[in-house]
Amino acid sequence: MKLLIAMMSHETNTFSPVPTELERFGSGELPPRDQAAYQATFGRGSTMAGMIAVAEQAGVEIITPIAAGAPPSGRVSDTAYQYITDCIVEAAEGCDGLLLDLHGAMVTDTREDGEGSLLVRLREAYPDVPIGVGLDMHANLYPAMVSNATVIAGYHTYPHIDMYGTGERAAQILIRSLNGEIEPRMVWGNCPMLPHVMRQGTDDFPNKALQERVMEMEASGALAVSLFTGFPHADIYNAGLSVVVVTDNDVEEAAALRDELLEIAWKERESFVYQIKPLFESVGSANAAADASGSGPVILLDHYDNTASGGTMDTTEVLREILAQELEDVVAFGIFDPAAVQQMVDVGVGQEVTVTIGARFQMDALEQQSEPLTVTGTVRLISDGKFTITGPMATGSRVNMGTTVVLDTGRVEIIVISRHVEPYDLGCFTSLGIDPLKKRFVMLKSRIHYRAVFMPIAKSIIECAGCGVCTSDYSQLTFENVRRPIYPLDNINSASLSEGFPASQ
Ligand SMILES: [Zn+2]
Which of 8, 250, 443, 496 is surrounded by the fewest CB atoms within 10 Å? Predict the structure, then answer.
């Protein structure tokens, strides 16, 4: 038996001005292929790594034509998409099964459903070859993805600490199916709702309860059950919450489980709505929070500019407010500004510099633009910005922040980076010789992923409404393509999903 295992992963924020060319899928180079793709993946905490582990355990031959994963950003260029999909489709020739680590929210220059288009092409070229797919919880599901795959398995956690297990699950089902042990049958459906990303964490109700029910269903015999909270910063028809259930040849059971989950999600839709506080008040409450009992830093969360949701990572409004309110003993991660980094590298470690940082991107999707911030401080450290993740998310993966500078203003240590990286691992600080536990305040440009390592060490969390293309205020965005009506953009009062909003089949 010969299996193809490949990755094509991107969460596309259609409001983001950050370009997505091919090099973004390979940390600044071409994405790794063949043996290099295997080496870049094996033993890491990714979906593709879980697929490889199961296939190797089963003793089957594998090929890994490409491992293309890019941090979230704007629409994927058609050229990049063509390169990656050609590579997968050509390599699939002669394979008995295909295992694909796809995100599930890829929008290209000309396609709303990048993953579905790939699966259609594979199905046309290889009509009888089973296809197993692993998807992120932020997948925006389309019919073409379901009808052209044999099995779909999605994450059960956000922060995503079960990527590896998701890959294992998809691979196990596909291999059992190839061995004739099971006959996977899949159904799906969606709700007319856009759960707010800040309310999607699996530490919180209602997604905690929903994912617990999902896992109960799997423990009770369903092959794979996935509830996708979806990615709302994509102005595409099928953005939003959906469910996929795979059973062993029991479509009725699969449909019943799907309907149960969709009904629960719909009934709890108000709990998926996020309430925003003014920035001045949030930062104004920081000193009282830091003076409260307990240990660890207070996290100041700049959630409008999360690079792992397509943020430019260069908006300055939260940092500006921190400086204006004169908070002491702060470390901020981070501001993406390669030009400012170069300017500080030229000045050198130990030197004082006045530099203007941030707000380099024009954000056409927003009326509010960020303003550049001029700061004076000492260049404390210059680093190549590379480290290995030790935390529970994507464990073992290499991170490349690009050339990185720590600028110390006296009150605030500002980390200025040259590549987009969300701070979901302590390495963002410890690789620069900074211990966040010893700080009074830690500013993070993140939304939920920071929780995996920072929640256990934090005294408290203060969510700060800044500025950016992953704004938590949906009214700042213009939705033209998402299906309507959809909650909460539209107020839908139906108590039950079945009242006028039947699930898709
Ligand atoms: Zn995600």
Answer: 496
| Cα 245 from Cα 243, distance rounded (Å) | 7
* Spacing, Cα 180 to ligand 1 middle (Å): 33
98 DSSP β-pair partners: 4, 131
CA–centroid distance, 71 to ligand 1, in Å, is 11
For 126, 210, 316, 496, the CA distances from 330, given in Å and listed in that order, are 56, 37, 15, 48
What pLDDT was estimated at residue 494? 79
> How far does the centroid of ligand 1 lie from the alpha carbon of residue 478, in Å?
22
Report the distance separating Cα 74 and Cα 394, nearest Å: 22
Of 91-95, 172-176, 388-392, the poorest mean pLDDT is in 388-392
- Between CA 403 and CA 418 the distance in angstroms is 6
**Cα(160) to centroid(ligand 1), Å:** 7
pLDDT computed for residue 345 by the predictor: 98
Count of other CB atoms within 10 angstroms of residue 59:
7
Domains of the chain: 2-272 (3.40.50.2300), 279-472 (no CATH)
Return the closest-CA partner of residue 83 out of 108, 61, 63. 108
Distance CA 335, CA 316 (A): 8
Question: CA 268 to CA 272: how far, in whole Å?
Answer: 7
Q: How far apart are CA 105 and CA 84, in angstroms?
A: 16
How close is the Cα of 126 to the center of ligand 1, in Å?
Answer: 29
Q: How far apart are the first and last CA of the chain?
A: 32
| Best CA proximity match to 474, nearest among 370, 361, 369, 365 | 365
Residue 11 CA to ligand 1 centre (angstroms): 8
3-state secondary structure of 255: helix
Instruction: Mark out the alpha helices in 24-135 (DSSP H runs).
Output: 34-41, 47-57, 78-91, 114-125
Query: 254: CA distance to ligand 1 center in Å?
Result: 24
Q: Ligand 1 center to residue 281 CA distance, Å?
A: 29
224-228: strand order across its sheet: 184-190, 242-248, 224-228
**How far is CA 91 from each of CA 42, 168, 303, 358, rounded to the nearest angstrom?**
19, 22, 40, 42
What separation in Å is there between the alpha carbon of 360 and the centre of ligand 1?
A: 26
Residue 56 Cα to ligand 1 middle (Å): 27
Q: How far is the CA of 158 from the centre of ligand 1 (A)?
A: 7
Say how many Å lie between the CA of residue 138 and the centre of ligand 1.
Answer: 5
Cα–Cα distance between 364 and 155 in angstroms, integer?
32
Ligand 1 centre from 6 Cα, in Å?
18
